[in-house]
Amino acid sequence: MIEQLGLLLISLLANGLSAMAGGGAGLLQLPVLLFLGLSFSTALATHKIASVALGLGATLRHLKESTLERRFCGYILATGLPGVVLGGIVILQIPEKITLISLGILTAGLGIYSIFKASLGLEHTPKHRDLAGMTIGGAVLFFIGVLNGSLTSGTGLFVTLWLVRWFGLDYKRAVAYVLVLVGMFWNGSGAITVALQTPPQWSWLPALILGALIGAYAGAHVALAKGNRAIKRIFEALTILVGIKLILDGIAII
């Protein structure tokens, strides 16, 4: 009972923060699963399945705002999902150390970049919607999809900043796209791909899923109420924390 309550609270906190920043739930959730004794592959499968509830909880809140464009949603899914499946297939076959350290440096760099770009993401100014822009944007989304399928923390944050920087979305709108599309569909595809290779800890999933649903809904509500500047600050803080964690995880691997 105490174990289940602990899982619920961790899931609430991790997914609440993720819903406010547009990613990063694995920063807290996956290390806890590993600390409680799960192997990396089992913890990864368990976390990925539970993370789908993050998308569902956030979707329930964000759909009330009706800010998502259907064609752009389809574009994000079409370019990113193949990468997610590819990443989910290869993750259990490759060493992590160099990947984690490199990704950690890059993730922390996202937050630092946003800090120094004071006006970034505060206004919605769509751009790069021509063929060349969509092609480049889609290629990057595919690459981030590979990272999403193969790694555990921070890739939603990559999508958030890419939508802001390349496509000109404000932070509030970018986070909505990430939570709905990455949270539900990218994470769902990655969860299925990984779970087919290694079974999750089924008995822990109810508490993790309940925490994710409630935390994501609450986090999305707070983000919508606070506006772009607050979301930007939360994004910057969380990207730096996730980056540091990934670097430390990579260094710890022998």
What does this structure look like?
- Helix content is 78%, strand content 0%.
- It has ten helices and no strands.
- It has helices spanning 2-21, 26-35, 40-62, 70-90, 97-116, 131-150, 155-165, 171-195, 205-226, 228-252.
- The protein is globular, with a radius of gyration of 17 Å.
- The mean pLDDT is 84.
Question: Which terms summarize this structure?
Answer:
single chain, 254 residues, mainly alpha, 78% helix, globular
> Stretches where pLDDT falls below 50 for ≥5 residues?
none
> What's the overall average pLDDT, rounded?
84
Rg (C-alpha, Å):
17 Å
Content of β-strand? under 5%
The largest sheet, given as strand count, sense and whether it forms a barrel, is: none
Based on secondary structure, the structural category is: mainly alpha
Query: What overall geometry do the principal axes of the alpha carbons give?
Result: globular
Helical run tally: 10
| Strand segment count | 0
> What proportion of the residues is helical, as a percent range?
over 70%
The helix/strand order is HHHHHHHHHH
Question: In whole angstroms, how far apart are the ends?
Answer: 35 Å
